[in-house]
Amino acid sequence: MAVDTALAFLASLVATGFSIDLWLDWRRRPRPHVAAYATGMTMFAVASWALWTALAFGWTEPAYRVFFLFGAILNIPYLALGSMFLVAGRRAGHIMFIALGAFSAIAVTLTLTVPFAQPLPASGIPHEIFPPITEGFGPRLLAAIGGGVGATILIVLAVMSAIKFWKRDRRLVWANVLIVAGTLAASTGGTSLAIGEAAAFALSLLVAVILIWLGYRTASGSRRSQGSQASNLAS
To answer: What is the residue-averaged pLDDT of the chain?
Structure first.
């Protein structure tokens, strides 16, 4: 198994494990931010499996469209939606949810229907398959909007949360540092995607999902600890 294929396989396994962890967390205690995180990470896992399948067996049109839709356009915005619910509150989260719903409908329609500008390669990660941004509104512009705006929201909210809890709970601060690092790793992978470097892109996916998972678990552990302390004080 080539290095890029092996890394894509590992990233897919880790992303799937994180997705299951999130959905189990949501099932135990349904909360909108957990549902949004779980949705975004499920998209991440689906995109990773599409990448692994393509690297192992060759690209097909459905595989590339699924990979681009969930890996380049929608996954980061839904992770950002989770942070919006968690940090900014339900009202802000619901507003973003409505806007993201409209964005998702457009993204699904265009990504599944816009003709390719050039054929898929035999190996590696395709780039410039969809028409360029200069030719009008299409999947590549949506990827720039979704990835750029989503990553910005994630990072800004993580920094706000870190500042808020700097003196109250350093564990939450470190959790946000890990989430920001994971988001940056995923964004950095977009550069590799643009130039078709498969191994670097697959590695960025693996690093991103590990860091974000560690950040989420660290934050969850801190919140459980705070809840336990509150219960002890109440008793």
So the answer is: 82
